[in-house]
Task: structure prediction
Amino acid sequence: EEEYLDAEDADFKETSERVIQHKKLTIRRMVDNLDPNIICDKIITHWNLSSEGRLPANKVANIKDDDDESSETSHMMIRPKREFEATTYTLEEQEVHCLEIAFLCWALFEGVKEAKEFSTKPVAETDKRKGGKDDDEPKAIFTPLRWQLAKAKRYDYFMESITNMHHAKYLHFLFGRIEILRGERLQKLFYLVPEPIRALKA
Result:
């Protein structure tokens, strides 16, 4: 959660600008260095390994691209027999943790892709990221375009699959999001809905 800034503080303006710049830099580096295809693949994979994907009919098919450089994350994972029979780390515990990981990947992708800073890049910074002579930072590995393509082909596909399997509000009982207005800044908070409420999803 972002630190609360008091508008009455003498250095409020400078602090606000520093917070905004830090957030912008953080989002930019996430876009540059995180592969959105892998994040989306992990959402699907861990969803299938959670209690939500226990039944074959409720599994979401993985997407495989011919030119996908991260093909190992696009394959359907099958839980081995030893994990079904485990007594120290039971199947129920594994499924809960897989749902938590699916949520964390979902929140990461949603938070980065929907951030205002995702599409707001000063021209000077954009030029530097192309690898000029004065570029002191490492060249970007991934691009906003790759994130947009991942959203269209993987993320939206996952969301639509869950809606078609169940209903439009199903994920609202699992993955929560609230928005808090802090002065002129809108902060989004993501959380995994408590289990008693998750039981109401049907």
